[in-house]
Amino acid sequence: MSRKKNETDSGNKWPKRSGKKQTPDARSGNKWPKKSDKKRDADEQSGNKSAAKKSRGNSAWDKTSERPSRQKRKAGGKSPWATVSKKDQQTWTGIVSAHPDGFGFVDVVGVEKGFFLPHEQMNGLMHGDTVEVRAVRNRGRESAEVVRIVEHASSILVGQFLIQGNNALVKPRSRKILQNILIAHKDCNGATDGDWVRIDISRGSGPLRGRVQEVLGDNLSPSRLIDLIVAELGLTNEFPAKVVAEANAFSDEVAEKDIEERKDLRHLPFVTIDGEDARDFDDAICVLPRGEGFETWVAIADVAHYVKPRSALDEEALERSNSFYFPDRVIPMLPEKLSNGLCSLNPNVARLAMTVRMRFDANGTRRSIHIYNAVIHSQARLTYTQVAKWLEDGDESSVEEAGIRDMLDDAARLFRKLLIRRERRGALDLDMPEVRAKLENDVVVDMTASDRNIAHRLIEEMMLSANTAVAEYMESHHCPTLYRVHAAPEREAIEKLNDYLAPFGLFVVLPKAKDKDGKVKPGAVQHVLSKSAGKPFAHVLHRMVLRSMQRAQYTPNNEGHFGLAYESYAHFTSPIRRYADLIVHRRLKALIKGQDPNKVQHENTLAEIGSQTSTQERKQQRGEWDTQAMLAALFHAKDVGKTMSARISGLTKRRIFFELEGTMAEASLDVDDLTGAFILDEMGHTLASKHSGHAYHLGETLDVVIESTDPVRGQILARLTDDD
């Protein structure tokens, strides 16, 4: 299915290898139809309403000043592993990421490389715990020592209920949860052997114990698999009563009083361009010729007009931070009354919008920007397919109105000029096709790559232009905002990338070692990507580049956006489904009215909101990855025993990872299943036999046999054919 406005962030990291399908998180999420059956959230289902209320109350709105943080590592500061006394040594606070083999890492905001936790330090910890650690050296290796547990991970998890003798236990779905959970007979809640359940665990000095909250059954249909993910992430389609009441208090139509004092743009030929399944329309565009240049209007749904600070709607939107998209449903950030109704830029009705007018010269250089509180009237709800048929094939039947066809032609002319400027800027162009599961009657009938046509790319460039224009506008007016930051990759990551490139005669130019503040330039990375076009190793290289990137995040500290090669960038164009965009809107609206933005949304709240929205974004991405892996394993269950072509996509000491041809699903095999002993050459990205000298190379194509699939855990196990 088609993606909603990419505004591509090439800086989002892939998950660490865990036997699950890894896809770039650079996108914004498909619009899939909602499913009618709904689930209640974890606190409400367990009867812990006070916990739910407390969670909503402890929001960024309760903070009048930013708390001092020990999480960020100062540039040019001492190494975390500097030799100092424990009393004086700096501590770091981060989130535990457990590994199935028993060790773990602590991921700290602002520190690219996670702190290693050896097995003994993982005692008493769970994946997702927030801990305070100090850096130490353990047996000559840089690692961490736990000072204290700051906050336990969520007590809600999903697993399989098993009866073993006289005991009942739950084996967690996630391989990162290493312990089985004991279930007392009185806490089984009717679960039977083999059922998948959602449980609430209790942590103490002894073994983990839990109570079954919901029996999910043993049905492995796509919808039930997605139910597992939704339950595991603690998501819900339902909104609290106060939120629903606030949403229902609005009329279905824009009130006349709300149009007063707004710039009336209802005469302009605005259109929305989205996927076939989209239901909420954040943005509309209109491009008109002006002399030898262009006048470009980008209208964005004025969500901030309806979702007021500190309202129940606002508190719930912050807690969710974004909408969550799955192949059979969407769990929205805002109630449908707003997301699909009053806020959505639906066709042929008046809608309130924050509208950016940009003037571009004949070369595609932006010469001016003006921002208005406006009212617009979308003249057509178009799809990417329709627009592409007109722009690429000249099919008039795809866009019936001649005036709209003319406007799209002007937009396409501007797009081509913006594309040239993008290339000159050095923005990364990663060729990462997305494969999505196609469902029919709750069956995975295909795994297909989504095509990106001219319409997708045109809208992406329009959104990028508006986002960076708004960021620069606010910066030029000295108005702090929430930036979308993608820091330059660490030198070490690029050096490893160059090790792989060396045999091909390619390398990414690095600043001189003595230049401590020197950063790799995005153009240097893009140059290598361009040089690799058409080469056999190009596909692997694109994935390696993505893995070498730092994770994009929301923060009030502007460090630019490496992947897009922008000095200033913010998310402005999707406030219906991203809370970060809503925050940008609030402060921007006050700014253009000549008011103090701090009276609407204080700048001291931005850092904590940035942390919350970044965390929720990663949660959304994890849900997408897990869902994709589960459905891929379900789809390939029919292929057990079959031989398939595959490309080696990853090598570790213990596993070889493959990308199956056609579906790009991830499969793997245990190195111990190979004949003889093998040594991993991390620099050369090869796994070589100690005795025969035969080696497996990253990017190599070979045939594998599908051995088994585990849809619930999203795993496909394979073995090599006799020939390989």
What brief labels describe this structure?
alpha+beta; OB fold (Dihydrolipoamide Acetyltransferase, E2P); 4 domains; five-stranded antiparallel β-sheet; five-stranded mixed barrel; 15 helices
Please describe the topology of this protein:
Layout: H1 42-45, H2 49-57, E1 91-98, E2 104-107, E3 115-117, E4 130-138, E5 141-151, E6 156-164, E7 167-172, E8 181-183, E9 196-202, E10 209-217, H3 222-233, H4 241-248, H5 256-259, E11 263-264, E12 272-274, E13 283-290, E14 293-301, H6 312-320, E15 324-326, E16 329-331, H7 336-342, E17 350-360, E18 366-377, E19 381-383, H8 384-393, H9 402-425, E20 435-440, E21 443-449, H10 454-476, E22 483-485, H11 491-501, H12 522-531, H13 538-548, E23 553-555, H14 579-592, H15 606-635, E24 643-651, E25 655-660, E26 666-670, E27 678-681, E28 686-689, E29 695-697, E30 701-710, E31 715-720
Helix pairs in contact: 3-15, 9-10, 11-13
- How much helix, percentage-wise, in residues? 25-40%
Arithmetic mean of pLDDT: 86
Q: What is the molecular shape?
A: globular
Strand count: 31
| Distance, first to last CA | 36 Å
Largest sheet: 5 strands, antiparallel
Tally of structural domains? 4
**Order of the strands making up the biggest sheet:** 3-2-1-4-5
Query: Compute the gyration radius: what is it?
Result: 26 Å
Binned strand content? 25-35%
Uncertain residue segments? 10-79, 81-85
Sheet/helix structural class: alpha+beta
Number of helices: 15
